[in-house]
Amino acid sequence: MATELGADGWLLISAALVLFMTPGLAFFYGGMDRSRNVLNMLMMNFWCLLIIPIVWVVIGYSIAYGDTAGSLFGGFDAAFLGNLNLSSQSGADTLMLVAFLGMFAVITPALISGAVADRMKFAAWAVFAPVWMLLVFAPVFKWVYGGWLGVRGSLDFAGGTAIHVNAGIAALVAVLILGKRKGWPGEGHPPHSMPLVMIGTGILWFGWFGFNAGSALSANGVAVQAFMNTFLAAAAAGLAWAIVERIKDGHFTNLGAASGIVAGLVAITPACGYVSSMSSIFIGLAAGVICCYAVHIKFRAGFDDALDVVGVHFVGGLVGSLMIGLFADADYFGAEHMNGLFYGGGLELLAEQALANGVTIVYSGIVTAVILLAIKATIGLRVTEEVEATGLDVAEHAETAYNTGDAFMERAGF
User: Model-level pTM?
Assistant: First the structure.
């Protein structure tokens, strides 16, 4: 009984930690954004905290975690949390799982908000976030965890494919459909508040222990290993990014360290329960270097990913997921899964990882495009040039983040 209560307590604490990550993400993105749009960015993230939990318990959980093993769709048996008997331990366990996974459902669409900063109508975002969660996140989650991709043998401990690659490719599609911000890339768009960015980074790192170690669903040895791997990979990636910047540009920057930490957290997420501590350091180092260079691809390719969601979350998630195919060690954990290439498993697991991510990229990309084009054709996606120039905070929310003087307030209509 004590062991059972300990496991339940850890899962509930982990759920709260993952919930705390969404405000952390809001601070992280908000600090990177322009001062005239910071409240808009905060509200985009907090909107996910408002609407996604409702949609999740009504139908999202049923689609994402139905009882039909190996299927494409979870069905509707658990819609409205039907057939949930809380008088039994199994009913209570199910409700805890609904709550825990619901926190993941909240933060996944929120990740996309950083890519579309400074130019997306809030009304469009308000529709997009819950629809995307239902039509993209929930089905992909089902395929990866208990659906056909998981049955085939692909591994994703805490959401590299289902969350970061999924949201990352959606972010890329969104910025291609929305178009570039006015003046990009000629005008600089530096973070308006590095203290907010660093606070957000710290909250994300803290919450990520629940994200990854909580995904063991019990306070056991796997949770401890996932916890340590999360710590080490983030540190290694932040260090690698900082060193690369020092070599390239001559400076250690706070933004580089923060971005590297988040890249390491993203990369270790799919692998944290399948690799050793030393392997997590290698994964973190690789993510720090690769993502540092990946964020600059947007300038060459010409897509305006405002806050580097593609370079950090899509690329980082892909790096971590594929490296499971190299570093997974079944003997080390005593788990029933294939070894990675470096542990005698050949290329089979790497091939399954590539297939799972390829399917996610294609499905998420196509459905995201359909959702956004439908919104564009109805209520519209993008704010006017005037609103973009003066800021979304006043135009979309009738608020300002900072009191910058009477002249500004008069222009804002206050």
Answer: 0.94
